[in-house]
Amino acid sequence: MNMRRLPRHALLYIGVSVLAAVSAKANDVDPEIIDMVSTVESDSLRYRTLTMADYEAVAKELDIPVAAIRAVVEIEAGPKAEGFNPDNTPLINFDLTMFRQNARRHKIDLNKYKATHAVVFAAPNVRKYGSRQAAQYARLDAAMTIDTVCALESVFWGMFQIGGFNWKLCGCGSIKEFVHQMSYSERAQLELFAAFIKARRLDVYLRKRDWAGFSLRYNGPSYKKRGYDTRMAAAYARYSK
Known about the structure:
Strand content: under 5%
Order of helices and strands: HHHEHHHHHEEHHHHHH
Oligomer: single chain
Mean pLDDT: 84
Low-confidence stretches: 1-42
Radius of gyration: 19 Å
Number of helices: 14
Largest sheet: 3 strands, antiparallel
Number of strands: 3
């Protein structure tokens, strides 16, 4: 499947049906895309929210206490730990800087698209689209008509805001599989996060309850200013009771 050459009339959106809203001219779209759309549309509504069983299963995979994974989820994903919008689309953040970098890597000249794809290069227009997430999806949709793979890899996805460019570190075989999982359920997002943690050997720090070591490597040097480590330690103590 050549994801880079999807027709413009496909007008793809990434969300509950991943590569959805395919136009009536579906016969012009790769059959594998159509299959993925129908599969995810039926599956993603089935199981969305995290349960204690999810935390227990992932904690076992990482060989860490359940309280540790719950603490990490609370701090990294927020107290509500939501991975989806009300319309069942996964939370996203389209990163223009990352899109520019990916375009250069793939030898794509973005200058010729600035006039025709202005929404990609402008800040999210909340007034026009009604919400920040809708505005981000509008940017992503337009970026995908330039290059599908570059666009998907330039988005930070789900409750943990994992960059699409990290799909290999998340144990996926392609960006398509990564997006499919991100759009499936919050449990699937948690599994991708766990795979990412293991691939970067960050589970070692969680096992030692080294919150500063984990936060530094996951959030970068600014973690101290935001108190990621101390907040994680407090959350762990609370969940350990």
